[in-house]
Design brief:
Helix content: 25-40%
Distance between the termini: 138 Å
Strand content: 25-35%
Structural class: alpha+beta
Order of helices and strands: HEEEEEEEEEEEEEEEEEEHHEEHH
Largest sheet: 5 strands, mixed
Number of helices: 5
Number of strands: 20
Oligomer: single chain
Shape: flat
């Protein structure tokens, strides 16, 4: 973009701002101190004088009229007075420079000067806007003292339908005459009802869009629904009877109010959801901490048990030298022995019975030992003592009765004995 284009754009913006200011000043009413004494419009400018400088020795007052249920915004846009001698008062307070004030009732502006120095004076802009009340049966109300406002059928109007089995009412308090304009109405005909009752006892049914005028307040709105079908609901705007505020301007305020109740409803819902999620997260954290603590305790117990086992194992191994060699490693079966010409092979599956005292070291050996590897495999040539010992015949000689008897051949020639053979033997 060239420099000339930027310059042209800047000039255009300045011109637009100037034109908007001029248009605002032209549309607003103009008032002058010591000439006008009160306002009669919704906005206007108040000047200290009509000329270039104000006069000496003046004491004038001006009233900014603020209707009931409205608010006034008063801005001092220009200020040039002889400090300490020429004084401007707004609502009883002296003004020392540009500033802004708000009020909900009539405001008195007073201007006094002395007999000497005069200057360019001041310029004040004021604007009157209604305080817009929000009423929601079975919901939240805002600024209910105002005679301007809107009433909705339910919370979150515009996003959700009204609920079932509703039975609520709301009261518009000011004791004034009202005009009512219901611009949005959608109810289940014959089952869901909305009514407005005046202070004089008249009741009007809200069934379609329409306008009612000069209704004596306070007003009582009632809303009832059944248990089945639901619709969008209704929206009714109210204002003081005979107000110069147009319905279109109040509809814009009603749209803002609708956004407000939708936002408040979403915030409250979000707060509830956030609280629930926070509680769930807190519970999960507590459970996780408990599980971690239990795991640590279990690991500590296992470590202590392993330490105790490892500590006691060397003692058992040290006290059982020869027994350990026999019981811990698999030995080859003993050589076949003969007794009186009978070949006898010991049963390899049969294990000699041991006393509980002898079994305890063997049970301790079953625990895996993280120590040095076992000694080399057993070889009969390296073993100094054979089993059974050569000096002792197997079975031992001191056994009184051997099996089978030496005088009898094993097994018998015949596997069956008759009664005669048995008696003969």
């Amino acid at each position: 973009m060239s420099f000339s284009s930027v310059s042209a754009f800047g000039v255009g913006v300045v011109v637009a701002v100037v034109l908007s200011v001029v248009a605002t000043e032209c549309s607003a009413d103009s008032y002058y101190m010591c000439y006008d004494y009160s306002s009669n419009g919704e906005s206007g400018y108040l000047y200290s004088q009509s000329g270039s400088v104000y006069s000496s020795n003046i004491d004038c007052s001006f009233t900014i009229s603020v209707p009931s249920g409205s608010t006034a915004t008063i801005s001092v846009e220009a200020f040039d007075l002889e400090s300490g001698y020429d004084i401007l008062y707004i609502g009883g307070y002296s003004v020392t420079g540009t500033s802004t004030y708000t009020a909900t009732s009539d405001v008195l502006v007073r201007f006094t000067t002395d007999s000497s120095v005069v200057r360019s004076g001041f310029r004040i802009y004021f604007e009157i806007t209604p305080i817009f009340a929000i009423h929601v049966p079975c919901g939240t109300d805002y600024d209910t003292s105002s005679s301007y406002g809107v009433i909705f059928s339910h919370n979150n109007y515009g996003n959700d339908n009204y609920g079932n089995n509703i039975g609520c009412y709301d009261i518009i308090d000011p004791t004034v005459l009202f005009d009512i304009y219901c611009d949005e109405v959608e109810l289940e005909s014959g089952y869901d009802t909305a009514t407005v009752e005046t202070a004089t006892g008249y009741t009007y049914s809200i069934t379609t869009e329409g306008t009612w005028t000069n209704l004596q307040g306070p007003l009582r709105f009632e809303f009832h629904t059944d248990r089945s079908v639901t619709y969008d609901g209704f929206r009714c705007i109210f204002r003081p009877a005979g107000s110069s505020d147009s319905w279109s301007s109040l509809q814009a305020l009603a749209d803002d109010a609708e956004d407000r109740i939708q936002l408040d409803d979403s915030v409250s819902t979000g707060a509830i959801v956030g609280a629930v999620v926070g509680c769930i997260i807190f519970i999960i954290i507590i459970i996780s901490c408990c599980v971690c603590c239990n795991s640590k305790n279990s690991s500590s117990t296992k470590f202590q048990t392993t330490t105790a086992t490892v500590t006691s194992t060397p003692i058992t191994t040290a006290t059982t030298t020869s027994d350990t060699a026999v019981t811990s490693f698999t030995q080859p079966p003993p050589a076949e022995k003969t007794m009186d010409g009978i070949q006898y092979v010991p049963d390899q599956q049969q294990q000699p019975q041991m006393s509980p005292h002898e079994q305890q070291p063997q049970m301790a050996q079953q625990t895996p030992q993280p120590y040095a590897p076992p000694p080399p495999a057993y070889t009969p040539q390296d073993q100094k003592s054979s089993y059974p010992p050569p000096s002792q015949q197997y079975p031992p000689q001191q056994q009184q009765m051997s099996y089978p008897p030496p005088s009898q051949q094993y097994p018998p020639p015949s596997s069956h004995f008759t009664s005669e053979e048995h008696s003969h033997i």
